[in-house]
From TrEMBL:
This is Unnamed protein product. It is found in: Membrane. It is a multi-pass membrane protein. Gene3D superfamilies: MFS general substrate transporter like domains (1.20.1250.20). Signal peptide: none annotated. It comes from the Eukaryota. It comes from Aspergillus oryzae var. brunneus. Keywords: Membrane, Transmembrane, Transmembrane helix. The chain crosses the membrane at residues 135-156, 242-264, 284-306, 327-346, 358-378, 390-409, 421-442.
Amino acid sequence: MDDKPAIELAECVEAGTKSRGNILVDADGQVQRLPVPSKDPNDPLNYSTWEKTAIIVSCCWFCEFFVLWTSLPPDFGKLTNILTSYHVLVLHWGPWGNSQRVLPVVSASRIYYQPSRLVIDIPVLVCRNCLGWRWFYWVFAIAVAIGLVLVVFGGFETGYKRRSQFVNGRMVITDRFGVTRMLTEDETREVLESQGHPSSGEEIPEELRPKKTYWQMLKPWSHPTESALTFIPQILFQIVEALLCPGILYATLLSSVVLASSIGMSLSYNTVLEYNYHWAPESIGLINLGGVFGGFGGMLYAGFLGDKFIVWKATRNGGAFAPEHRLILLIFPGVLGVAALLLYGFTADGGATWGGPYMGWTLFQITFVSVLILSTSFAAESWERNPGPALVAVVGMKNIVAFGLSYGINPMVEKYSYPTAMGILAAVTGGVFLLGIPVYILNPRVSTNVGIYHTF
């Protein structure tokens, strides 16, 4: 039996329906899944399994090997510190370029984004196990060529203008960033008064529209939906506006510190293992195996188990979901991250066993991946009126802060010591995690008191 919530078009329901808050779990215990697929066969939510898989694989392949470019072999010496630090300034600005084109491919619950990022350093393992540093670029070139083939034949267009809907008496919209959310009663009234009821006069009803051909779905180019002269200033203003929210600032600062800590460890583990623990240069890349397991651990905790916790918390809260519920999940990665930095710092000087820095790096990857997932999800959920710009603000602005921190880690190690440098970094990281306590208290008040804007 179909368990989808009842849907009515906007023109069939009045705006005065009472709102019950951010309902994630309904009275029957069913998780509200948004957006709800339309009857249009060209709706990306109605794509076949292989079409959805092709899109996801293409995007993931590109993202993974784009990040792998930053995993430089050890032969570059001090140049590695410069290149790895400066790339952070431009890394992860993808949401800006994709702001008008990316829509969700798979229907999900009212959790806007779950960006699980896991970097498997296969080229680094190959290049540091006996093939030489030049093979790093050969392997990378081969991987990019494979990605190009995947994109050409499987990167289907997901741009789709989704009509507003009413789900269980509440208006549901999808904005220009592809983010779907429920409107409150006041927001619904303002949208209907400013834009009127959506027209239902399409020439062909959704259910009767023909399915696009394979070549039409590829669609290598499309015309912009808005003028850049009006779109870019508006988005820049919304990004700055989002950064005034305590939740967005906290998500940006937390992800920045964790990213910088991860980069700092990656810049030093080559020296630690080769000179302090006498590893062969070609074996140093094996530390990334620990990073793989740590990354999977972060995905399991913040993704699968995190969603279970959010649904459980919403159920106990009368079905209502609050973005601040996600901050509770930061307790474990916060404690683990501080412990991992201290473990790495106090064993990196060679006075213990190589298992110390190895496990420090591995455990910190659990924190790293968990924070990336939780911080971006919290940002999109805590700034409901413009979650797209909020996400761009966090994902992009964190690189600027992380650049300053990561660039100074190696000089700090040279001036002091590994225990001192990593101890300072652990203290800063722990302090930022603790800022989640006042954010947990203050952010709902700020989000509640914001005005209603017309950018839907």
